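DM from R.C. (forwarded with permission)

"hey, sorry to bug you on a friday — could you get me a structure for this? deadline for the figure draft is monday and I only need the backbone to look sensible"
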Amino acid sequence: MATTTATAATSGTATQTKINNARTSMASNQETFLKLLTTQLKNQDPLSPTDTTQMTQQITQMTGVEQQLVTNDLLTALVGMNEGGLTNALGMMDKQVTAETEKSVLKNGQATWSYNQSRAGTSVKIEVLDQYGKTVATVLPEDMTKGDHSFTWNGKDSSSGVQQPNGGAYTLRVTALDAESSKIATSSKGRIEGIVTAVTNENGVNMVTIGTTKVPVDAVIGVTNPPAA
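My reply, with the result:
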């Protein structure tokens, strides 16, 4: 899936590059033509004016080429939506999928992430953020070593102890510091599992909706038939 989509994206990028180069060349040639036309009109012999028929034909040809470039842009967009993209994504409809993304959905009172710490620290703070960027839980893990770690949130608000409802999407923020209070580079990702309920293309990016959460098609790492009812 990821390989197919990446190949289509590479092909679409190469095509778009050629179109952009052609448009740049077209703009340059058009500017040069207009300068020559202006100079020619300024210096024409009043007793023998320049025949405008040929110039009109050249302008018409340039306009036709520019319209073709616009058409090529539209075709490129359609190719990106169909080759390895939206067409393949439609095959995920009503399927059980697993996606790796920055978000993790609270399910059965739990949400899980993995995170990487580039080097050992002396202070690490983990924050769970809701869809509005508000911190709902804060944890100070004991393991502050370098490398990969996993974190499971119990779904409870740290300030009130109230269990949050299932289905909400949350993100993780990890802040790690060393002995000099310098920040340590970290990265995190969560997993979302559920049934695909919609497939869309938004701003050129093919998206699938898992439950109520939208994720890029490239984020999907597994597809299976839904469990029997």
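R.C.: lifesaver. The two ends are 27 Å apart (CA to CA).
me: no worries. Residues 2-42 form the longest helix (41 residues).
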